[in-house]
């Protein structure tokens, strides 16, 4: 009897695993097909992209669409703008947030609760609420159509969440380690550099990727505040909608180039990224 | 800079002095130590505020000042393209107009339908996937990553890509549905289908997000409780209903808040997918506000509208605020 029960349970387990795989595959087809379509279309001959039934796998890859994209559209400039913006924003916001997060996590000072409350409120401000006054402010400061203007804006927008996450990560580092270093003759600053920063590494990677992603993906402010000189990839992509409506070759090539960095980061740094995204929600 | 360490040892020494009755500190010594403590406290405040200064300068010029000035603008009347000195005070007029504006209330209705349907579907799908992928089956890590991928696609591109998929003639949605004998549809221009198409697209990128949060919540659950339930012979359903759901309820609440707040703020994806069309049928709130400000030029009226969104977001997030804003335990 025991053996039969055992076999029954194993059968049930196998069926359950089978079900997991089938449902997983169904969802994955739905989830991944649009990405698969875009990336493969970008390396197909232009006239094959819109042919039905589609050639899913066996076709001659070509880079013509990419050549078309770079020759006939100012794609290289948009790419440069977006890369500059994303890297600059990430670098500034991480330094700024780290500087602010340490006292919030470790020191007891007057006005701390006020700052924390301010940060939490600012976390929730919708971009749409700021767009009008920012637009007017930037007109007055002559910061429209400048990468610097957008960079400052993204940094400010990311600062509350980045600071909040880093504050949480610093909290997780045992205070004893720092105190031990200080007893051994380190100054507090020395202890931060030698003890806190190395342990904070994965957390820093997480917030940096999240910041990069936000700056890379941002659309509303870029749409409103950029002109010909500072146009970013997302604004260019929204213009494709009308300019390239029927030209799926360069459209998919451009889309692929915009897709790649965030997806690549996800695949490479998945663990840190997941930690950053779920932090605060779970703990 | 050893403040903390020194302060601690000093304090314990002070107490040592106090306990034996014969060595009560003299008045002079007492005032010296209090003065020292005050100086130290001020020093610590100064260091902390100095570290916070760059952040504070940036967020007060680029977030707080505009936020306040935007609120002030809602009481004025001014349109884009006219001179700034034509701006005049109109009291609550913008706010009252907002309440009676038919196009605004229609866009709110669309936003609620869109966000509600998308939240419901993506929650069911994300939760279901998380429960399935909770089990440690071989290859599960790769599968989990693949499930997450759509979440990381640039929102503007989600619209661009799905627009190609939905194309009535060349789109692969119609092609694959044709294989199971479903007639081709005009997904984005048919008034009966456009909102559904938008919801499916939103489901595509939001379900992975729900999946991520719920899965992390599940993985953080204590295992021993489940082992005890197994010993008691609890069924899978009973374990789900009496253990998983109650233990997971804070994570579920936060996931719902995050997802809903995200969904009602949708702009990028729909700006490229449907641009609000056909007609106004997918013109969600943010698209309408943006149109008000930048196409029709009603700057101050749009500012009032955008503030309404902030209040709603804030109200919806109250639970989140309460959870996040716990004073730091020192």
Q: Based on Cα principal axes, name the global outline of chain B.
A: flat
The percentage of residues in β strands of chain B lies in: under 5%
Q: Distance between termini of chain A?
A: 45 Å
Number of beta strands of chain B: 2
Secondary structure topology:
The complex is a heterodimer of chains A (283) and B (330).
Chain A: H1 2-42, H2 46-49, H3 64-72, H4 75-106, H5 112-123, H6 127-141, H7 147-172, H8 175-183, H9 188-217, H10 220-225, H11 233-243, H12 248-268, H13 270-278
Helix pairs in contact in A: 1-12, 3-12, 4-7, 4-9, 5-7, 7-9, 8-9, 9-13, 11-12
Chain B: H1 3-18, H2 27-73, E1 76-77, E2 88-89, H3 93-100, H4 102-134, H5 140-148, H6 155-165, H7 172-179, H8 194-219, H9 223-231, H10 236-264, H11 268-273, H12 285-294, H13 299-316, H14 318-324
Antiparallel strand pairs in B: 1-2
Helix pairs in contact in B: 3-13, 4-8, 4-10, 8-10, 12-13
Give a written overview of the molecule.
The complex is a heterodimer of chains A (about 280) and B (about 325). In chain A, helix 5 (about 110-125) crosses helix 7 (about 145-170) and helix 7 (about 145-170) crosses helix 9 (about 190-215). Helix content of chain A is about 80%, strand content about 0%. The two termini of chain A are about 45 Å apart. The mean pLDDT of chain A is about 85. Chain A contains 13 helices and no strands. Chain B is mainly α. The chains are: A mainly alpha (about 280), B mainly alpha (about 325). At the A-B interface, helix 1, helix 4, helix 5, helix 6 and helix 7 of A face helix 1, helix 2, helix 4, helix 5 and helix 6 of B.
């Amino acid at each position: 009897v025991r053996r039969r029960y055992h076999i029954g349970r194993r059968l049930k387990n196998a069926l359950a695993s089978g079900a997991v795989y089938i449902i997983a595959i169904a969802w994955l087809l739905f989830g991944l097909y649009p990405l698969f379509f875009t990336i493969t279309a970008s390396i197909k001959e232009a006239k094959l992209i819109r042919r039905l039934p589609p050639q899913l796998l066996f076709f001659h890859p070509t880079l013509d669409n990419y050549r078309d994209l770079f020759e006939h559209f100012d794609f290289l400039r948009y790419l440069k703008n977006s890369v500059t913006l994303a890297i600059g924003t990430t670098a500034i916001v991480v330094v700024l947030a780290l500087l602010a997060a340490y006292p919030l996590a470790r020191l007891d000072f007057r006005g701390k609760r006020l700052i924390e409350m301010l940060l939490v409120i600012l976390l929730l401000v919708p971009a749409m609420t700021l767009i009008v006054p920012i637009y007017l402010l930037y007109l007055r400061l002559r910061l429209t159509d400048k990468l610097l203007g957008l960079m400052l804006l993204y940094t400010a927008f990311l600062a509350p969440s980045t600071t909040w996450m880093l504050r949480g990560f610093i909290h997780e580092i045992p205070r004893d380690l720092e105190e031990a270093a200080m007893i051994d003759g380190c100054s507090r600053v020395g202890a931060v550099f030698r003890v806190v920063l190395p342990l904070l590494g994965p957390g820093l990677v997480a917030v940096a990727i999240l910041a990069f992603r936000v700056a890379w993906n941002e659309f509303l402010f870029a749409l409103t505040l950029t002109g010909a000189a500072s146009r970013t990839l997302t604004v260019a992509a929204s213009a494709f909608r009308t300019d390239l409506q029927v030209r799926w070759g360069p459209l998919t090539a451009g889309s692929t180039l915009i897709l790649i960095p965030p997806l690549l980061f996800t695949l490479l740094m998945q663990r840190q990224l997941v930690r950053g995204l779920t932090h605060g929600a779970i703990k | 800079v050893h403040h903390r360490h020194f302060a601690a040892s000093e304090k314990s020494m002070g107490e040592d002095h106090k306990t034996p009755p014969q060595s009560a500190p003299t008045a002079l010594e007492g005032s010296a130590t209090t003065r020292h403590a005050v100086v130290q406290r001020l020093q610590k405040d100064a260091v902390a505020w100095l570290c916070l200064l760059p952040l504070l300068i940036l967020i007060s010029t680029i977030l707080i000042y505009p936020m306040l000035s935007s609120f002030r603008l809602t009481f004025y009347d001014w349109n884009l393209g006219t001179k700034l000195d034509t701006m005049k005070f109109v009291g609550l007029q913008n706010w009252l107009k907002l309440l009676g504006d038919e196009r605004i209330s229609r866009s709110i209705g669309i936003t609620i339908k869109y966000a509600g349907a998308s939240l419901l579907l993506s929650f069911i799908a994300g939760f279901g996937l998380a429960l399935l992928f909770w089990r440690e089956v071989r290859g599960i890590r790769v599968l989990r990553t693949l499930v997450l991928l759509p979440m990381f696609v640039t929102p503007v591109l989600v619209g661009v890509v799905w627009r190609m998929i939905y194309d009535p003639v060349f789109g692969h949605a119609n092609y694959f549905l044709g294989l199971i004998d479903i007639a081709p549809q005009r997904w984005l221009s048919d008034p009966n289908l456009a909102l559904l198409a938008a919801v499916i697209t939103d489901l595509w990128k939001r379900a992975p997000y729900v999946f991520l949060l719920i899965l992390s919540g599940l993985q953080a659950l204590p295992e021993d409780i489940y082992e005890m339930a197994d010993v008691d012979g609890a069924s899978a359903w009973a374990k789900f209903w009496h253990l998983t759901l109650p233990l997971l309820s804070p994570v579920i609440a936060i996931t719902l808040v995050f997802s809903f707040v995200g969904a009602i703020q949708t702009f990028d994806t729909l700006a490229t997918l449907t641009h609000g069309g056909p007609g106004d049928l997918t013109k969600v709130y943010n698209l309408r506000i943006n149109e008000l400000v930048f196409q029709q030029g009603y700057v101050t009226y749009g500012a009032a509208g955008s503030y309404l969104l902030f209040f709603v977001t804030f109200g919806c997030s109250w639970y989140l605020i309460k959870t996040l804003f716990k004073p730091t335990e020192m």
